Request: fold
Amino acid sequence: MKSKLLAAIWLLALMSAIGVAAAPPRTNRSTEPVVRNSAEAETMRLEGEKRFRANCGRCHTAPQKFPPRMMATIIRHMRVRATITDEDMRLVFFYMTQ
Amino acid sequence: MSCRRRSSERPRAGTLIPRSRKVLFFLFFLSAAQLLAQTTESDRTVPILTGTAGYFNFVTAGQNQLDAQINPVVLLPLGDRWLVESRAEFEGAFQRPPDGGTYGGMVSKNLDYAQVDYIANTFVTVTVGRFLTPFGIFNERLYPVWIRSLQQDPLILPLSAQSSDGMMLRGGFSVNTRLNLNYAAYVSTISTAHNNLQSNRDAGGRMGVFLPGPRIEFGASWQKLLQDQRTNLFGLHFAWQPTWLPLNLHFEYARSYQGSGYWVDGAYRFSEVVFWQKTMRHLEFAARAEQFFNGQISPDEAEALGLPGANTREGEFGLNYYLHDGLKLVGSYGRQFSYAGNFNLWTAGIAYRFAVPLGRVAQ
Reply:
């Protein structure tokens, strides 16, 4: 009974995940910062690296760079888990997807 | 003298009264289903199956324990502001009987969290469901085996409940460029019907200050049990990552009627060593010192909660070798001192972090 309940919860979560994955991707307005030129991009990248080291490095070593769609999910997860700020989230996302 | 049990095997504190677990999980999945209808507009996020896996040998007072575990995490982003996330823990701990024979033991299953997060605005994220109790920093942030620098649980970890079922408000925001604040406040309901989904009726919170310049974080936690003895639990935490040294320092203190104690640990990465750089930059030295003081409960009650039965001191140090960022070999030695007896703690193993997209990742 206990195992069935746990299995059912996980099955439901996985089915939901696959269902959402089947949807066509749209533009992410919430995470991706607006960049106007290459100088601004470089500034943001440097600032993003700084924020990455300050926030993420407090708990774990630097992970590899994931594809942007994965990174967008991971950064949202980390925003909740590590209570990082909105601005830090955007800059770290920018740095990790360059 | 027994092997220290990992948290998933520890019973919860306090007497539990049967109540609304079914309602809670019904609400959780109802929310997920409703969100699914509106979120298939999931922008450029993609659901992910991630998590950790590990295999360890824990030798405690000469007794070997084989520990194999996998902790899958499902991340399901919905729309721009929602996230459904869940982590389960499957852990097999096998020991040889005292009189010899083959290894045997149980495989424990535990649902650490299954929560729906709504990022309401810059300041507030609303979380509903089963979540990791935000007390101190270890339980929420440092628990996964690929993150923790030493694999033994801190002695004071069982003082706070590991998971709670209820609702939480949390967030982090900048006050100015030199100061960030973060907080979490929650209420939890009693859940007893399922061994792997238990929680206590309590309320609590955590407040933290982060100084991005010197990379210092400090804060305090509080938890009030709203059942049985209605006791309080207080905690302090501190983290520092110096900018001039590849060093990570963490500290936690907790105090309740069940006991009190602290742990402090540091992890130094040999990335700046000038010799054997190819090898040394993958190597990390970790050390921890900790102490536990008995509270107002009997030694038997303490051990039933996973706490030491007597005042205890412990020191531990070890080496981690990162084969790559998500895969590391670990080895450590520690010694525990208490009136109940002194003994050695040896750990050797491997920890792995995986992440797999559950959908297309191409732009």
User: Anything to note?
Assistant: DSSP finds four helices and no strands in chain A. Chain A touches chain B through 57 residues (CB under 8 Å). Residues 37-98 of chain A form a domain with the Cytochrome Bc1 Complex; Chain D, domain 2 fold (CATH 1.10.760).
